[in-house]
Amino acid sequence: DSGVGVRKRKTRWADEEPRLPSVVLPDFMNDILGSVDLDPEVQALNIRMLEITRFLASGGPLDERPEGARSPSPEPVYDNMGIRINTREYRARERLNRERLEIISQLIKKNPAFKPPADYRPPKLHK
Amino acid sequence: QQQIALQRLVLQAGSLPTKVICLTQVVSADELKDDEEYEDILEDMREEGRKYGNLVNVVIPRPHPNGEPTPGVGKVYLEYTDVDGAMKARQGLHGRKFGGNSVVAVFYPENKFAEGVYDN
To answer: Is A4 on the interface with B (CB under 8 A)?
Structure first.
């Protein structure tokens, strides 16, 4: 190749596919990916769980609708120090935590080999 | 535990990393019959393959002019000086589109490649 009259050839290679943003996956996701599960339902559950995990870690935004448009808040509950316990943020996190636990138990049901995240404690079935 | 996972991954991939990768489902015999087109494809491969490491050799088996079946037609072999380059190339090229075809990249046994055996 002398480089004389370098033709501008059009390469047959398509542009590199836009890769998914390379997030550093938490360990538990790697474990899931290790046992690649192609069941779309399981995938959807895994994705949702990742979303929740990320949201909880980031302390994402709450429901930003104005006061009147949201459903009414429950009666406030206070601790002994007089600080409100059931704040909107607290309730939002609780809701997501519950959903996450529910997803994990479903994943375990679908795949007994599924390795739940380190912080997962199976819910007590009976008190 | 991580090692077991790694081993499983390697076994799943079907082949251990080598310095040679084989791109399957890339080109058609028809494309390779034409000299100019063949050179073009060769250049495309060199250009792209270089991006991943020290590319030393590109082999694209061509169909026999008399129509005799030739092993390895439709495949493209890229040889690197080290496994690292081949691994990067496999990672980077697998799933990419070449002339509309979805490329499948696998490691190819070095000894076979050295002997000029292009099959499987």
So the answer is: no
